[in-house]
Specification:
It is a single chain. The chain is of the alpha/beta class. The chain contains 19 helices and eight strands. The protein has one domain (6-424). The chain binds Double cubane cluster.
């Protein structure tokens, strides 16, 4: 990081010693995972910079936003509509929970056997290590899984949490209920920000977030080519950065990158070998800086062509309709878009398995790797439905269960390599 941000971190109340330890680990890991890739697109430079400044420049921007009276809202789930927060002049940040941190403190308030993602977000707060957390005026939780639902009660002891109740079916009464939840959320956001959401502000915000999703779709379309212009690891990084970077700047940077990638496709400059197995990754989200499985796959002989996960297609695949005159009409469109997210908390969740079959065809995938976090019941159990559907369609699948530790890396690599050998082109 270029500047001295220590006074800022101190003013946010971070535990500087523990924070230093994190910052000492991240850059070398990033160097190993990202900077050693061959033939990277030049325009990845921006994303390297943003990652490098993850606790620096972006936090400074959020502080400047707050100094002008703006609010920052943190979230952990792609069910939290950014459109609403933005329409009230707030900034929504996805709080990273992709690294094992503060375990000693966490295990005083949570059971040991709980998924890494939940442990991580609690650890960041209890150990005072995440400057994003400390910038947040409000955290939005959700009732997607039992672990999160109960953990948010505890988190509320430390920071105000608004919990969105997420329906777990998609019947008409569930849709109506979800719309009501978003009406309440909109009022909460108006109260916290002190700003009224108007039809104009909501329309503008829907368009801006649609633009962000569209550019990610543009990038992903390019991954359908035989010549792959970008690695899966770089794509995942961009998808992770999408959750905390400035919306308009991010959109413009990804557009610029897509132009370079289009040229690469035309010139036949890929990051893959023609015989690299093409893999779709599916399962629990991979929050920054969780790159373990992607790195294991791509440091074997394969290349990832799509992520059917919330740090991937589920985040950007559907747009919100830009029709509608009143706030309620637009809110209804927002509700309609978000309820189609194929999270394993839904029952049944056939949309996800159908989508995987469609994606395997469109992205010319040779196989699918289903990755669940250990102790994540929804995804570990749903792996059975994924397996059954893919088997019916003759699509090879590897099921893995892991956490944020590195101890199983060797064993996972052996299993991944055996799978790749089996599906070799
Ligand atoms: S919409 S996938 S981001 S809930 S891994 S905490 S489910 S026990 S993360 Fe998710 Fe929203 Fe669904 Fe997406 Fe629980 Fe499982 Fe842990 Fe999870």
């Amino acid at each position: 990081m270029g500047n001295d941000y220590r006074p800022m971190w101190e003013s946010l109340g971070l535990d500087l010693e523990a924070h230093d330890q994190l910052l000492n680990v991240l850059p070398p890991t990033y160097g190993d995972v990202y900077l050693k890739q061959e033939n990277r697109p030049d325009k990845m430079e921006y994303f390297d910079f943003v990652f490098n400044e993850i606790h620096g420049l972006r936090i400074q921007e959020l502080q400047e936003h707050k100094a002008k009276g703006g609010k920052v809202v943190g979230a952990y789930c792609v069910f939290v509509p950014e459109e609403i927060v933005r329409a009230a002049g707030g900034v929504l940040v996805g709080l990273c929970s992709g690294v094992e941190i503060g375990s000693a403190q966490v295990e005083k308030v949570l059971p040991k056997n709980i998924c890494s993602l939940i442990k991580s977000f609690m650890g960041f707060k209890l150990a005072r290590i995440c400057p994003y957390f400390e910038c947040c005026d409000l955290i939005v939780g959700e009732t997607t899984c039992d672990g999160k639902k109960k953990a948010f009660e505890i988190l509320n002891d430390y920071v105000p949490v608004h919990v969105l109740e997420i329906p777990q079916m998609r019947r008409e009464k569930d849709r109506q209920f979800w719309f009501g939840e978003l009406q309440d959320f909109l009022k909460t956001v108006e109260e916290y920000t002190g700003n009224k959401i108007t039809p104009e502000s909501l329309r503008r915000s829907i368009k801006e977030i649609n633009a962000k999703r569209s550019v990610l779709l543009r990038l992903n379309e390019l991954r359908k080519n035989d010549v792959l212009p970008i690695s899966g690891k770089d794509s995942l990084l961009i998808e992770q950065i999408a959750m905390y970077d400035d919306v308009d700047r991010f959109t413009s940077q990804v557009n610029g990158l897509c132009e370079e990638l289009e040229t690469r496709v035309r010139e036949g400059k890929g990051v893959n070998k023609p015989d690299s197995p093409r893999i779709i990754l599916t399962g629990t989200p991979m929050a920054i800086p969780n790159w373990k499985v992607s790195h294991l796959i791509e440091s074997s002989s394969a290349i990832i062509v799509a992520e059917e996960m919330c740090t991937g297609l589920r985040y950007f695949e559907n747009l919100v309709s830009e029709e509608g005159e009143s706030v309620d009409q637009m809110l209804k469109s927002i509700a309609d878009r978000y309820i189609e997210t194929n999270c394993a908390c839904f029952t049944p969740n056939e949309g996800r398995t159908e989508e995987l079959v469609r994606l395997a065809k469109e992205y010319k995938a040779d196989g699918v790797i289903n990755c669940s976090l250990i102790f994540c019941d929804p995804y570990m159990i749903e792996a059975n439905r994924v397996e059954k559907t893919l088997k019916d369609h003759g699509i090879p699948l590897l099921r893995i269960e892991t956490d944020y530790g590195q101890e199983d890396s060797g064993q996972l690599k052996t299993r991944i390599e055996a799978f790749l050998e089996m599906i070799k082109r």
